[in-house]
Write a structure and sequence with these properties.
Distance between the termini: 39 Å
Shape: globular
CATH superfamily of the largest domain: P-loop containing nucleotide triphosphate hydrolases
Largest sheet: 7 strands, parallel
Oligomer: single chain
Radius of gyration: 24 Å
Number of helices: 17
Helix content: 25-40%
Amino acid sequence: MEWLERLIFPISPIAAPSFALCSDADQPRIRPRIWQQQLIQLLRRRSDPASTKGRDVLVHAGPGAGKTLGALLGFQAMQHEGRLSRFVVFCHRTSILRQWRDAAAGLGLSLEEWSACGDAGLLEQADGWLLTYQAAARQLPTLTAALQHWGGPDLLAIADEAHHLGMDPDEPDGPIWGRTFLDLSHGCRLRLGLTGTPFRADNLAFCAARRVRVEAQGQLVEQISPDLCVEPRQLIAAGDVRPLEFHFQDGWVEHSREGMPDRDVSPLSAEQRESWRARNLRRAIRLSDSSSIALQLLLRARRQLERVRQQHPRAGGLVIARDIDHASAIGRLLEEEGDRVDLVHSQDPDAAQRLAQFQEGQADWLVSIDMCAEGFDAARLRVVAYLTTVVTRSRFVQGITRAVRMSSERAAIEDIPRDPSVIFAPADPLLMSYARSWSLSEPYRIRSDQPEDDATETSGGSWRGPSLPMEAVNDGAGEVIRLRTPELPRFLQQ
């Protein structure tokens, strides 16, 4: 805390800097949030050679919490103290690289894309390297040698969206991204995982995350234990992000076949049989379905965006579609109504450019399949239409939370709690259940393939892989951060 206290500065009415990272007056200054200050303290403790808590630090923070900035502030503080020398950032998508570069540049850090930079001297002098998990896997031997030469032992490895790094010690040929990250970070001083959704559909453990044993229903089970957790509802209450308001479109789904006299009809919201529920959702998102659920949903989303624009003229909307054909049909429908549409998908070579164009406000709607689920930041997003059959909690939460961010200009003129963004989705029972708990942190239980006799192991250093210790985190940093803030909107209290 002494170092932190030495860096406190008087608050000015304009810039309000309360935190200086370097003694050089020309270096950028910034006021970190509470959890970012706690992260700096945690990294300091974990970098101590005498620490017995391991080198993995996992941050679970909702969109808008400032995970990118927090990680960069943490490294810069450790660099200033001589605890770390350099860092490397791994991302799951190329479209996110720009956001990391811009954030690093704002702090005076040189962050270079390793696979794209042709200047060896520039790479050698950089504070950090930036690359995707895919690029790392393709060039593993070369990158391994380069990191050993450039980074040395005082290296910080940052895993963005760390839940993508699935790791199954019982399957050596399993998820490649996890194995790649473990190989490359083997000699690093610290490994920092960042995620807004610390869970996976396959219930595997993931890298840069510590595993703990807890008792549940009379048995010991393994869970991922974030070292720092900032719940979305706390960010909402603090005014850092927008709340979300959900509008679920219900209806009767008809499955009768042409020429058949009988009618097979099922209610979308009330169907609990899994096969029927999935069947209903597939029909509900079709624009040509007789129920017109998708069409009604899009119509109401357009009307909502028009209302929002009366107070927020630059507001835009996002439609998450099922596939390219589905997205193209939605785009044509919106264009027929006079809207400007950017269609983005993974097979589009100009996808990154189109995303940037939308961020700058050149289109009314962004229609995408899977390009905007994670890491995509567009503060102008205020309406989201979820029209896909992917119903995992991770994908749904990542998709809808694209609309929680806001620009500094809007934050300055809106009261707390902020004006809500609105989510439109078919009234699928699973999606509605996710909506009820999206702003809460829930424990993530790891899939267990061990016999019941093995479940009695304690947490004192047992291992199921080379880099995944099962020991409890007892250094006081694992609790949800509670802020003294205004009450949540009524619909979030229900």
